[in-house]
Amino acid sequence: PIDASPLDSSLTMSSKFSLYIPTRKQAFFIEIIVLGLIYVLAFATRLFSVLRFESVIHEFDPYFNFRSTKYLIKHGLYAFYNWFDDASWYPLGRIVGGTVYPGIQLTAGLLYYITRLLHFTIDIRNICVMTGPFFAGNTTISMFFLAKEVGGSGVGLLAAAMIGIVPGYISRSVAGSFDNEAVAIFALITTFLLWLKSVKTGSVWWTVMCSLSYFYMVNAWGGYVFIINLIPLYVLAMILLGRYSNRLYIAYSVFYVVGTFLSMQVRFVNWIAVQGGEHMGALGVFGLIQCVCFIHWVRSLIDETTFRKLFKLVVTSVAAAGLGVFVLGSATGYISPWSGRFYSFLDPTYAKKHIPIIASVSEHQPTTWASFFFDLHILTFLFPVGLYLCFTDMTEAKIFAAIYGVCSVYFAGVMVRLMLVLAPSACILGALALSNSLYTYMKVFSNNARADRKVRSTSSSPSNATPSTIGSKKRNNREKKIPAEVAGFMIVGIVFLLVFFVFHCTWVTSEAYSSPSIVLAARGQGGQRIIFDDFREAYYWLSQNTPDDAKVMCWWDYAYQIAEMANRTTLVDNNTWNNSHIATVGNAMSSSEEDAYKILRAHDVDYVLVVFGGVTGYASDDINKFLWMVRIGGSVYKYIHEADYLDPRGMYRIDRGASKKMLNSLMYKMSYYRFGEMMTVYGQPHGYDRVRNVEIGNKNFDLDRLEEAFSSEHYIVRIFKVKPQPNRAQ
Question: How many alpha carbons fall within 13 Å on the CB side of residue 98?
C-alpha cells in the first residue's frame, strides 16, 4: 500500500474540524447576525445628543423622573412609595408614591444596582441618559418576534430595522429622553407579542407572561389603557367573525383576571382597574366570552330547537343584567366617568372647550399630515398597503395587526403624542407591504432562472423532453405575467425608497430630536455654532443666591427643572393635577402688577421666573404661551376674559395696537422690562421683538412691587424678586 502524503493528511484533518453550518440553520444564524446589527444601529443612532452636547437629561418631565430616581436610590423603595414632596405644589405638596407611574424609576434603579453588582461604576445620571437607547435596542428584538408572528422572518427583520430608526419612536427614546415612553413602548410591543403567543397556543404559561408584561406597562405609562381596550376589542372581533376557540377563551380569561389583579397593585391605578370607565369595555368582553363559552357547552348537550330558545333567553337576560349593573354603577358613582383626556380622543375639541390645561400642551394637539410624513416617511403610504394584505389573508395574527393599525392611526390623528403608539403598527404593516412586494418581484427572476435551467437541460438531451416537462414549461410561461424589466425597475425603486427612508430618519434624529431643551443651539451668520446655556445659568443662580426655603412662581413647564437643578420650591409643576392652583398662577400672570402682588404675597412667593425669547428669537417663550395662561385662569376665575387681551379685531398683539390690559399685565412687564432700551436687530428701532417681529407697544415703565434680580446672558430666563410688603402708616 502507498502511504498518504502529508498534504493529504492535513486536508483530511482540516475537513474533520471545518465549521460546517447545515443549510437549514444558515437562515437562523443570518437572522441572529442581522438582528444584532439592528440592535447596535438602534442604540447608536440615538446618541447624537450626547456626542453634540453632553450627557444631559432632555425636556421637562424627565427631570422629575431623574430627581425621583435619585431619591429612590438614596432612600430605598419603601421611602420612595411614601415620599411626600413638600418642594412642589406649595403650600399643598405632593404624595409622589400615589401620583406617579414608577416604571421608569424602578427600571433605572434596577440597572444602577446591576451595574454596581458587576463592579461598573456608572453615575446614575448616565444610566438615566442611556435608558432610552438601551430599551430601543430591546424593542427591536420584541418587534422582530411580533412581526414574525404576523408575516414571517423577513417581515420581522424589516419591522425591527424600521422601529430602530423611525422618527415617531425615536422622538421619545433618544439619549437623555428619560421619559415614561422610553420603556413603555418596549412593554407595549412585548405585551402584544406574548398575547399573540397566548392566542396561538392557548397556553396558560404564555398568558401569565403576557399579564406580567402588561403589569410592567401599567407601571410605566398611562398608555396601558390602550392595551386594556385593544385586546378586548380583538377578542370581540374574533367572536363576531366566528373565530371563537378554547384557546381564545383561556388566553383572555387568564389575562383579564391576572392582569387586572396585578395592575391594581400600582398605587396610581389601584381600584381604577375595576371601577374606571376606561376599563368597563374589558370587563364587558370578559363577561361576554364567559357567556359564549357557556353557550358552546350547552349547545353540545341539547338539541338545536331547545338551544335556540335557551339562547334567546340567555342573551336577553345577560344583556339586561349587564345594562342594569352599568347604569346602577354609574348612578351610584361606583363606576367612575371617563377622564378628560379620554373624552378628548372621542371629541378633539372637548379639551379646548372644557379643560384648557390639557389643550395647552403642544403634544396634545391634533396631528397634521406634515407630522405624519415627518415621523413615518414612506410608512405613511405603505401602511394602507399592509392593512390591505392583512384582510386578504385573515390569520389570527393579521387580524390583530389590522385592528391595532386602525385604532392606532385614529388615536394618533387625534393627539400627536400618540404617534408613539402608531409607529410600531406602521412598522409592522409597512414591513408586510415591503416584504410582499419584494417577494412578488424577486420571484420573477427566480422563475426565469428556473425556466432557463429546464430549457438547457431539455435541449442538451432531447430524449428527456417528456410531456410532463413540456407541460411545466408552458405552465411557467403562463405564470410569467410580470416582465423582468418591470420587476427590476420596481426592485430598484423600492431600494431607493428604503435608502431615502434611512437618510430621512437619520436627519430627523440628528436635527429635530437630539437637541436638549435645557441647552439651545443656533447657527451664526458665518455658520458657526452658538450655544445658549441660559436655563442652567439661571437655575444655578437660583441655587446659589436665594434662601433654601425660597418659593419660586413660574409657569408649570419649568418647575421640574427648577426643583431638580435649583432645589427650590415651586407653586405648580408638570403633574398638573390641580387645575385651580395652576389657574391661580395664570391669574397672577394676567393681572396688573398691583393685583398680582396680592396673589404673590398670599402664596408666600419670593421670586417670579419668566422665559423670554424676544432678544434671541426663542419662540417657545412665555409671551407665546400667555393666552393659555389667560384661558386656564379664566376657567376658574370668571372675571378673566380672553377677549380683554386681544385687540378690537380679536388679534393677539404686543405692539402699540395691543389691548391696555395686555400691556399692563404682569407677564408683559416682566418680559419686556428694560427691553425698550435694547437694539436687537440692526436697522430696527429699540425694543424690537425678534419672535413676534414687531416693536413693543409699552417701553417706558417701571416695576413698583417687583425688582429685577437676574437676567441670563441672552435674556432668555429672567428672575424678579418680590419686594417685601411696605410698613403700614402709623
Answer: 9
Residue 689 has pLDDT above 70, yes or no: yes
Mean pLDDT, residues 708-724 taken together:
94
| Alpha helices, DSSP H, located in 152-223 | 153-165, 167-170, 181-201, 204-220
Take residue 571 and report the three cell numbers written for it: 407653586
Q: How much of the chain, in percent, has pLDDT values that exceed 90? A: 65
Q: What would the grid cell of residue 80 be?
A: 420612595
pLDDT value, residue 307: 74
- Residue 228 predicted with pLDDT over 90: yes
Cell triple for 659? 389691548
> Which helix H or strand E contains 553, and what residues bound it?
strand 551-553
Q: CB count, 10 Å around CB of 632?
A: 29
Per-residue buried b or exposed e for 73-102, using 16+ beta carbons within 10 Å of the residue's own CB:
beeeeeebeebebebbbbeeebebbeebbb
- 530 forms beta bridges with 522
Q: With contact defined as beta carbons under 8 Å apart, do 273 and 217 qualify?
A: no
Amino acid at 344: S
Spatial neighbors of 442 by CB under 8 A, at least 6 apart, are 487, 491
Q: How many CB atoms lie within 10 A of CB 236?
A: 17
Calculate helix-pair angle for 579-590, 622-634, nearest 10 degrees.
120
Between 3-7, 383-387, 448-452, the lowest mean confidence (pLDDT) is in 3-7
pLDDT higher than threshold 80 for residue 462: no
C-alpha 404/C-alpha 147 separation (Å) is 13
| Burial label, 125 (beta-carbon count in 10 A; 0-12, 13-18, 19+) | middle
Specify the pTM: 0.89
Cell representation of residue 274: 375595576
Are residues 216 and 270 in contact, defined by beta-carbon separation less than 8 angstroms? Answer: no
| Phi-psi sector, 650: left (phi>0), alpha (psi -120 to 50), beta | left
